[in-house]
Design goal:
This protein is α+β, with helices and mostly antiparallel strands and 338 residues long. 48% of the residues lie in helices and 14% in strands. Helix 14 packs antiparallel against helix 15. The model has no long low-confidence stretch (mean pLDDT 91).
Length: 338
């Protein structure tokens, strides 16, 4: 959370230097990569979203290197946006990057696009509305989904919360950048960028190749309602060309939660343990697939799914160590028999 008064003051001063006006921070939140401020110009009643990008990296970087770090992060983000736009993806109407006035951070400033699609679906969790939202998202990114799979050049983090829908569907979260850097012959997949090729390859499978990208989207759709996976399949068959749909469907049929689907009723604790033990320890999406299949459609479902997502994610700076499998089993055990 951006709760440092000096940092907040610097953010408001930076906004004033670009836009004039009198800026106030009216709310804050945090993602894996950013401290996020919702800011209002009280003179013009204008709202902007300011992301203080990976502040921990700047803390860990010598002061004399921080401006160069900010310039690199901002340059990569602009390149990512250019590539997304070239595939027809709509982005926020306003976007700029800058360096905070004292040089100790990178700020990404965007127009406020309203409620994201996860919030919209939580407010109106009907099948017809889900079909409409899912269809609009898939249509808006169709160009990216149909990239040549031998060398995709741009990736996506297909979380429902990364899209907004007003008059059109927009992809609003462009950090960290996901693209193939032709100059340096490397996939940009994370911040900080991994130096292990196996980890880079894993990110490419999950966020660049269409089956893996849509597997993540499938998880976030089923996080809200488990049966919405069927709605997703229907919309994928409509949006994707036949060859791509066949590839995606074949991949979905191999996912670990299919073992849960074969069980009549709730799984026993032993059955759940067996299914979990058969998943590769590095296949974090596989464990999330199991959670989506086991947790029933109850009011607490989204919160429980969020707990599983957080316990299985790559730990962030300052996060305590966690026994991923043990924590996942603890969350799912109440929904087993015996």
């Amino acid at each position: 959370m951006t709760d440092d008064p000096e940092r907040k003051s610097l953010i408001c001063e930076t906004l004033h230097s670009h836009f004039g006006g009198t800026w106030e921070i009216t709310g804050t939140t945090r993602s894996n990569f950013s401290h996020i401020c919702f800011c209002t110009d009280t003179d013009a009643d204008k709202q902007m979203v300011v992301k203080d990008i990976v502040p921990h990296l700047f803390t860990e970087t010598p002061k004399y290197e921080r401006r160069a770090l900010a310039e690199r992060l901002n340059r990569r983000t602009h390149r990512f946006r250019e590539l997304l736009a070239s595939f027809g993806v709509l982005l926020t109407e306003e976007f700029m990057t800058t360096i905070i006035l004292n040089g100790d951070g990178a700020l990404h400033i965007t127009s406020h696009e309203g409620l994201n699609c996860l919030e919209l679906l939580r407010q109106n969790p009907t099948d017809d509305y889900a079909k409409s939202i899912i269809g609009k998202i898939l249509t808006s990114i169709s160009g990216v989904l149909h990239q040549p799979q031998d060398r995709p050049i741009v990736g996506l983090d297909l979380q429902l919360a990364n899209f907004t829908i007003n008059s059109d569907c927009r992809y609003v979260d462009v950090f960290p950048p996901l693209y193939y850097d032709e100059e340096n012959v490397i996939y940009i997949v994370h911040e900080p960028q991994p130096d292990n090729q196996d980890i880079i390859d894993s990110h490419v499978r999950r966020k660049f190749l269409t089956p893996g990208t849509l597997r993540r989207f499938r998880h976030f759709v089923r996080e809200v309602k488990p049966h919405w996976g069927h709605i997703l399949n229907d919309e994928l068959e409509r949006v994707l060309n036949p060859e791509m749909w066949k590839s995606v469907k074949s991949y979905f049929d191999t996912l670990p939660d299919k073992e849960i689907d074969k069980i009549d009723g709730q799984p026993t604790e032993a059955q759940l343990t067996r299914v979990i033990s058969n998943i590769d320890v590095n296949d974090l999406d596989g464990f999330r697939d199991i959670a989506a299949a086991v947790i029933p459609d109850i009011p607490e479902r989204i919160d429980l799914m969020k707990q599983t997502f957080m316990c299985l994610r790559t730990p962030g700076p300052g996060d305590p160590p966690i026994n991923r499998i043990g924590e996942l089993t603890r969350i799912l055990k109440p929904f087993t028999i015996g």
